[in-house]
Amino acid sequence: MTTPYDPAQNQPPANQQPMPPTAQFPQVPAGQYPPPAGQFPAQPGQTSPPPGGWHNVAPAPAARKRPAWLVPTLIGVGAMVALCCGIGSVSAMFGDSKPASVSASEPPAVAKPADATTTAPATTTPATTAAAPAPAKTTAAPAPAKPKTFGIGDKVRGGDFEFTVKSVKCGISQVGTQFLNTKAQGAFCKVSVTVKNVTKSAHTFHADGTLTAQDASGRKYEADGEAGIYGNSDGQGFLDEINPGNSVTANVYFDVPKGTKLKTITFDAGLFTLAEDAVVTL
């Protein structure tokens, strides 16, 4: 039977100085093994070890054994977790590879023919997208009709009258008789014109203010009333009262610079009518 361990047996005498911890164990020479575990040589001043050896070192606690069921259980749980996570991962990875159902509103992409020469990628247009409205066909506005050009001898309507230019003569320096006449500042151009009333009532014709002349440069000339009095035998063209259907032929004079040639004669339709002016090209 082993004697119980008494800590008082290892206490040094009262008159002895305690030894440092490192002095309790002798130095082991190089190449020698330390004494067996639990066996320590007696130090000076210590009593001999009791039978069975010193038990001054507490035995190391025995390692706890794992239960036999722990390892298989952990392995099983890990396998279940790995299996569940693996299935989820596989589903997530291959879920998009499942062919999507073709929507009724989106037609399948048209395959590009093998012999296509274009390199642009084919594009598809959803069936539900409203087709772009075709541009409205716009017809070009018809060009405004050019006014009819009238010349000498043509009948031209101007307001209440119908005018006809019969002749044009320029370079006249004097109009009238030897005793009663008027001289031009430059030269007179005589325009012989017939005026006919084409309405259903009488109207007054006055050449001065009704007829104007233009030259090639666009200069505008008014009729000379005094020359018109001397140049007509009965004062035609000066405040003539013309009944419906009747006509008057008068000579209208324009005082223009010498050498000027008239290009057009314009008949004013009047202030109280919506008719357009009549123009005759000479």
Write structural notes for this entry:
- By secondary structure, the protein is of the alpha+beta class.
- It has a domain at 155-281: Immunoglobulin-like (Sandwich).
- It contains two helices and ten strands.
- It has helices spanning 70-94, 225-230, and strands spanning 155-158, 161-176, 181-197, 203-205, 211-215, 220-222, 240-242, 247-256, 262-267, 278-281.
- The strands form three sheets. It has a four-stranded antiparallel beta sheet.
- The protein is rod-shaped and about 165 Å long.
- The chain starts with 69 loop residues before the first helix and ends with a strand.
- The model is unreliable at 97-105 (pLDDT under 50).
Please count the helical segments.
Answer: 2
Low-confidence stretches: 97-105
Strand content: 25-35%
The quaternary structure here is single chain
Q: At the third CATH level, what is the topology name of the domain at 155-281?
A: Immunoglobulin-like
**Sheet bearing the most strands, described?**
4 strands, antiparallel
Key features of this structure:
alpha+beta, 4-stranded antiparallel sheet, 2 helices, Immunoglobulin-like, 10 strands
SSE layout:
Elements: H1 70-94, E1 155-158, E2 161-176, E3 181-197, E4 203-205, E5 211-215, E6 220-222, H2 225-230, E7 240-242, E8 247-256, E9 262-267, E10 278-281
Antiparallel strand pairs: 1-2, 2-3, 3-8, 4-7, 5-6, 5-9, 9-10
